[in-house]
Design a protein that fits this description.
The complex is a heterotrimer of chains A (236), B (275) and C (232). Chain A has 236 residues and is of the alpha/beta class. Chain A has helices at residues 40-47, 71-74, 91-101, 107-116, 132-144, 162-179, 190-196, 214-219, 224-230; strands spanning 2-11, 14-24, 29-33, 55-60, 63-64, 77-80, 150-154, 182-186, 199-204, 207-213. Chain A has a domain at 2-83 and 148-230: Rossmann fold, CATH 3.40.50. Chain A has nine helices and ten strands. In chain A, helix 6 (162-179) links the parallel strand 7 (150-154) and strand 8 (182-186). Chain A starts with a strand and ends in a 6-residue tail after the last helix. Chain B is α/β, with parallel strands linked by helices and 275 residues long. In chain B, the strands form two sheets. In chain B, strands 1, 2, 3, 4, 5, 6, 7, 8, 9 and 12 form a ten-stranded mixed β-sheet that branches. In chain B, strands 10-11 form a two-stranded antiparallel ribbon. Chain B has two domains: 32-111 and 223-272, Periplasmic binding protein-like II (D-Maltodextrin-Binding Protein, domain 2, 3-Layer(aba) Sandwich), CATH 3.40.190.10; 112-221, Periplasmic binding protein-like II (D-Maltodextrin-Binding Protein, domain 2, 3-Layer(aba) Sandwich). In chain B, helix 6 (131-141) crosses helix 7. In chain B, a hairpin with a 2-residue loop joins strand 10 (263-264) and strand 11 (267-268). With 232 residues, chain C is mainly α. In chain C, 80% of the residues lie in helices and 0% in strands. Chain C has ten helices and no strands. Chains in contact: A-C, B-C. Chain B binds chain C through residues 1-2, 5-6, 9, 13, 16-17, 19-26, 30, 35, 40, 44, 64-67, 79-81, 180-183, 185-186, 204-205, 208-209, 235-238, and chain C through 24-25, 28-33, 35-36, 38-39, 87-90, 93-94, 96, 98-101, 154-155, 158, 161-162, 180-186, 195, 197-200, 202, 222, 226, 229.
Chain lengths: 236, 275, 232
């Protein structure tokens, strides 16, 4: 679905991303792991078209993506941030936003999405009065109501309590199996990657160190750095 | 909820504007609008509130009065930003008439300046007849003196007296305020300082201040008021007819009588002397 | 002395309660001039502030610096510039706007414009990063994302307008300079205060000052109510 070729991103002198080749296949949940500063979030922002790569190309279904990406292409994917930013209006208005900008308001779908994340009845609440876990679930509802082909998640559960983490992980699994949504989830939590992803990418210092089926990477990592990270050793 | 606030705010401003429009600007015909620039001391004396309504009733003109210092009034007239001037700096007025900025200047009335001071009178000038001598005593005793310092007619007169006394006023005791007559009187009153004031403003404020007349009657204190029109050839859109009408009214028998009749606190402020 | 002040205050309050037509006219003109000036200024300042807040280039930063500087423009300087422009001897003299409420509005627009622009710019900037990016990821076009940012910044923008109103309604230098404090025509609260103080009519001056304070209080109350909405 997505293919990156020779993608380099630098800020001034500092190179934060250098990916020779990376393919993400349709319909999979792919976990992106790695220590802080590995370039995981930058990778997501580049795929989403929020940042321009310094050099290299991205292909979406085999077609080269320009920068900034065409609106029609951007509308096939969406992203949820670690710290969700909700608009200062009702929950309902937040969830309907993406449909509105597409000119496809649909009350039923909005209510379904809110129900899907387990917050039925909160439509009229002000979004800024929600707890962290509720806010993240609304951010997720706001994304899935769009039925994106590709859902990008940047540490969506990093600030949440275990109960909310579990809710969100289950939602993602359900979404993937029901709608065949491709999900790319950045996490520094190896257990989360293990729990939900079929594929994992291990990154460090801007490079992709290893990519493969979750079972294989966790049981027989091919790179020593991956093995060390999985074992929880400090690596640099 | 937010939309309603935006709406309310805008609505309120609009309503405010309409209310204000209703009260605020009632504009008449342009050729009946006359702008008179005068000095703060004349304006604050209240004389014009007595004269101008009568003039407006008689002629149908609508007079806007600007109260500025003599210096600023003369400058406004030179720029064409007023139609007619009532000021008191005769030698400068005559010079500007000669230079072609103004026409039809006539004497209208006079009052006089007085030297005021607190009841303590530290320089002991009370009752003196020669103003220049009194100024010398003030300077020598370094008693505080409050000067308008604003290039006004009163300020010019004061500087002329210092010159006659042969003194360059400067030092801690000499307060150059850059304020109008009323403000200068207020400051002098608070500080118990000496000052030079036109009698009209002094009388108007007499019951609000402790200052007393210490020196008066010296011929140099004579304060001549003149009225003149802005030269209509110098600028577009000067209401010369209106200016001429006001000049004629001021020197008319009726106008002169009204000036002589104008009293504040039972005292006559101006003496009409049109020829 | 103390008793004198209380006496002054009491007489000032009585003058307000008497509420004569002259007083109503003065207060009304103040509201009209400052209200119109702020509305006109907002019409230009909000789009400009939004544009500058969303852009981030070198020359935008220079313009921002200039705007911040002009936020502190002394009213009398604004008045002087407008006077020189509108004077018969100035470039716009033929319009014959000097000594009219319109001249006062122009001068106050000059004072309100930088304030509303600057505060709008700051408000937009503070929202652009998070809100703008979120809107983009949800499929908004650039234009739609900008609208979302403006919508999120609307409270701060309204505050900016009210702050502009507070500044111009209390200034005296500009309106005195270009309005001339003509009775019944261009006399507003602040210039009337100057006049009455000069004439020694402290009670009249004080009563006008009290009305001005009450108006400022109302304006600030509106501002705080709006800002209070932010945090529920």
């Amino acid at each position: 679905m997505i293919e990156l070729k020779n993608i380099v991103k630098s800020y001034g002198e500092k190179e934060v991303l250098n990916i020779e080749s990376l393919k993400i296949s349709r319909g999979k949940i792919c976990g992106i792991m790695g220590p802080s500063g590995a370039g995981k979030s930058t990778l997501l922002r580049i795929i989403n078209g929020l940042e321009k790569p310094t050099s290299g190309s991205i292909y979406f279904d085999g077609k080269k993506v320009s920068f900034p990406p065409e609106l029609s292409l951007r509308r096939r994917m969406t992203m949820v941030f670690q710290k969700p930013v909700l608009f200062s209006t009702t929950v309902y208005n937040n969830v309907i936003y993406g449909l509105k900008v597409r000119g496809r308001e649909n009350r039923q779908k909005v209510l379904q999405a809110i129900e899907f994340v387990g917050l039925k009845g909160m439509e009229k609440r002000n979004a800024l009065s929600l707890s962290g876990g509720e806010a993240q679930r609304i951010a997720l509802a706001r994304a899935i109501v769009l039925e994106p082909e590709l859902l990008l998640l940047d540490e969506p559960t990093a600030n949440l309590d275990p109960a909310n983490v579990e809710i969100i992980e289950n939602l993602l699994l359900e979404l993937n199996s029901k709608k065949n949504t491709t999900i790319l989830i950045v996490t520094h939590n190896i257990f989360q990657a293990k729990r939900i992803s079929e594929e994992v990418v291990f990154m460090k210092n801007g490079f992709v160190i290893e990519k493969g089926p979750t079972n294989k990477v966790f049981s027989r990592p091919s790179a020593s750095q991956t093995a060390a990270f999985i074992k929880g050793e400090m690596i640099f | 909820m937010f939309k309603s606030i935006v709406k309310k705010t805008v609505l309120m401003l609009v309503v405010m504007m309409f209310i204000a429009l209703a009260f605020g600007c009632a504009n008449g015909q342009a050729d009946k609008e006359l702008i008179l620039a005068t000095t703060t001391s004349t304006y604050d004396s209240g004389l014009l509130d007595f004269l101008i309504p009568e003039f407006e009733k008689e002629t149908g003109y609508n007079v806007s009065i600007l109260a500025k210092g003599t210096g600023a009034s003369l400058e406004l007239g030179k720029r064409g930003d007023s139609d007619v001037l009532l000021v008191h700096a005769k030698s400068r007025e005559l010079k500007l008439v000669e230079e072609g900025y103004f026409v039809d200047r006539v004497d209208v009335m006079y009052n006089d300046f007085v030297i005021l001071g607190g009841p303590e009178d530290p320089a002991k000038i009370s009752g003196m007849k020669d103003v220049a001598e009194a100024f010398k005593k003030i300077a020598n005793s370094k008693a505080e003196f409050a000067s308008r310092g604003d290039n006004s007619g009163t300020n010019m007169k004061e500087l002329a007296i210092w010159e006659k006394a042969g003194i360059k006023p400067q030092g801690d005791w000499y307060l150059s305020l850059g304020q109008g007559m009323g403000d200068t009187l207020r400051v002098a009153n608070e500080k118990g300082a000496y000052t030079l004031a036109d009698r009209g403003t002094y009388l108007a404020m007499k019951d609000k201040i402790n200052l007393q007349v210490l020196v008066e009657g010296d011929p140099i204190l004579f304060n001549q008021y003149g009225i003149m029109a802005v030269n209509p050839d110098k600028h577009e859109g000067i209401n010369y007819d209106g200016a001429k009408a006001l000049i004629d009214f001021m020197v008319s028998e009726k106008g002169q009588k009204m000036i002589g009749d104008y009293k504040k606190f039972g005292e006559q402020l101006f003496v009409p002397n049109a020829k | 002395m103390n008793e004198g002040f209380l006496n002054n205050l009491w007489n000032a309050l009585q003058l307000i309660l008497a509420w004569d037509t002259e007083l109503v006219r003065i207060v009304g003109l103040s509201l009209f001039v400052s209200g119109a000036a702020v509305l006109i200024a907002a019409l230009f300042a909000i789009p400009l502030g939004t544009f500058l807040g969303l852009k981030n280039s070198k020359w935008v930063r220079y313009i921002s610096k200039i705007i911040y500087t002009f936020m502190g423009l002394p009213p009398v300087v604004a008045g002087l510039v407008v006077f020189l422009l509108l004077s018969k001897s100035g470039p716009l003299g033929i319009l014959e706007l000097l000594w009219t409420p319109w001249a006062m509005i122009i001068a106050q627009v000059m004072l309100a414009l930088p304030i509303i622009t600057g505060l709008t710019m700051t408000a937009i900037k503070s929202k652009d990063q998070a809100i703008g990016k979120t809107a983009l990821t949800l499929g908004a076009s650039k234009y739609q994302a900008a609208l979302a940012v403006i919508r999120e910044a609307r409270i701060a923008i309204i505050s900016a307008i009210v702050a502009g109103l507070g500044r111009v309604i209390a200034e005296v230098g500009a309106v005195m300079m270009v309005g001339g404090n003509i009775q019944g025509k261009t006399r507003v609260m602040t210039t009337a205060i100057v006049l009455e103080t000069r004439k020694g009519n402290f009670e009249m001056a004080l009563s006008l000052g009290i009305i001005l304070l009450v108006l400022a209080f109302i304006i600030n109350s509106i501002l705080m109510t709006i800002q209070g909405e932010k945090d529920y």
